[in-house]
Amino acid sequence: xxxxxxxxxxxxxxxxxxxxxxxxxxxxxxxxxxxxxxxxxxxxxxxxxxxxxxxxxxxxxxxxxxxxxxxxxxxxxxxxxxxxxxxxxxxxxxxxxxxxxxxxxxxxxxxxxxxxxxxxxxxxxxxxxxxxxxxxxxxxxxxxxxxxxxxxxxxxxxxxxxxxxxxxxxxxxxxxxxxxxxxxxxxxxxxxxxxxxxxxxxxxxxxxxxxxxxxxxxxxxxxxxxxxxxxxxxxxxxxxxxxxxxxxxxxxxxxxxxxxxxxxxxxxxxxxxxxxxxxxxxxxxxxxxxxxxxxxxxxxxxxxxxxxxxxxxxxx
Length: 316
Hints:
The protein is of the alpha/beta class. It has twelve helices and twelve strands. It has helices at residues 3-10, 24-38, 67-86, 100-110, 126-131, 134-141, 177-190, 207-224, 227-232, 244-254, 269-273, 278-285, and strands at residues 14-18, 41-48, 54-55, 62-63, 91-97, 115-119, 146-149, 165-169, 193-200, 236-241, 259-264, 290-294. A ten-stranded mixed beta sheet has the order 5-2-1-6-7-12-11-8-9-10, sandwiched between helices. A two-stranded antiparallel ribbon has the order 3-4. α7 (177-190) links the parallel β8 (165-169) and β9 (193-200).
């Protein structure tokens, strides 16, 4: 990865906070903390979806009246902007109209955004599940790190605090090297304790081969660690067996992770709609913010010599 890009992604100059206004109290404290770490500017973005055409009650003619909606949204955004200003953070409010995923993705490119922060509430109804969510669409559409504040993440009490413990979980897919570099850079920046985790499926047919695989995966993780990280972050290695999402969450809980970093190779549309992806489960259950980095999977990409029987389709 280009060093300039890595610097921007680990120490963002511009952070985009996507909000539906209702989730703002859940998100603002985390964005304040992140912005203070790198003296970043915040773009506070609210997207108004296309207004349905209604019939004029007087003459029955179709009409659209977006004005009141925009004014109400702007008033709410102004109140949020003041929260950032009180912390000495430059914040600009932006209202867009259209499909949130598309509009935010375009703005990320136009404004050279370095990180996107979005919240998610786990959908409970079949309708919401099939429609998906803004957070989920951004995970698969934008090419910069996306920090998702899940429903179980508590507000950031101390706005000046930095992450002390970071978990990086990886499938060791060849395209996961970018997310590994990002994890190391963030850990180095904050001098945080870093744990590199890989989860494999238990293999009972041949214990010797299974043990060899565990040792091989441990070596793969060790090779990701740079000399700089050894100095600043005291990295440790963890190999777990079982369901990837479950084991990631268990490891995060045991080490009291302040931040989880994952890569996402883009689960299939069916997996996303059914909420079957590892990333989705980690985000919805994690007590810590989760940063993901989209890594487009290509036909030529390969995992590092993972036998087919052991490949658990870990989408990170």
